[in-house]
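[step 3/7] fold_predict: job queued, chain A
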Amino acid sequence: MSSIHVARQPSRQRSSAILLSLLFALLLPSVAWHFCAAQPATSAAQSGATAGAAVKPQVQPAEVGSPTDPRRGQRIPLPVPANPKLPTLFLVGDSTVRNGQGNGAGGQWGWGEPLVDYFDPTKINVVNRAIGGLSSRTYMNRPGGDPWALTLAMIKPGDVVLIQFGHNDGGKPDDPSRARASLPGVGEETVEIENPILKMHETVHTYGWYIRKIVEDAKAKGAIPIVCSPIPRKTWQDGKVVRNANDFGGWARQVAAQEHVGFVDLNEIIGRRYDALGEAAVEPLFGDPHTHTSRAGAELNAECVVAGLKALVNDPVAAYFSAKGAAVQAYKE
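[step 4/7] structure written:
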């Protein structure tokens, strides 16, 4: 009996082992799938927390498709001052100031990238906080993290804020694909809408109201705001580039006058350069049919920004130019 019992025991063990192996093989894919599905989310959260502690640049949703949609997953870095002890020149605006991630993708550049070379980095930070696709309104209407609030938190007394909006401010305030337009003018008019992108009720103000708010917020922090008219589009009429003095350019000028701050008429300064060059020479200065500049166009526009700053009665950045910036002549009307 003993010998028979001993002979059968290994057989039972083998059967049990085979059964366990089959069960394990059946269960393993399910266990592995659940583990792998959960793991990336955990790792992303952990890596995000680590990066947030070590990396300074803030991020905002990239403008893909519907520019004001906060649900877009792609994100772009926004720079911060390299040396907080120095004064900072902050740039706020749209894609004509900073296109995409500011790396020339698609052959398109904003003037904020080459502007850096006109300043001495040992004397001042130049921080380009512009975001493509945004208007004066959508730069400050994102719940829980609008770009202006994040920028304002970094501003200190003596900093300078250069403001240029307008290219994305036209249209219907409740456009279902964008919902970014401000109301025309500089008054206190408002309209109540249900924002189809943010899914919330919103009071929409005029273009001038939004620019004025940025100016007043910057003043309250002890900074020096400067308003710019939007750069001209590549639209020709009677041999000259069409100006925007009757709308956004004119409204920007009015706000600057109301607030007693500097005004750089980029629309006219650059427009005169384009007129002098002529249509054929201006063509390669653009990376698309009429709005976004190539690197060469961005360089020209940046030089015009410097010329406009030097033309101010009290240029707040006069002491901070690099050799390249010092060589630029002040704009003369």
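[step 5/7] annotate
Residues 1-55 form one domain.
The chain has two domains: 1-55, 57-326.
exit 0
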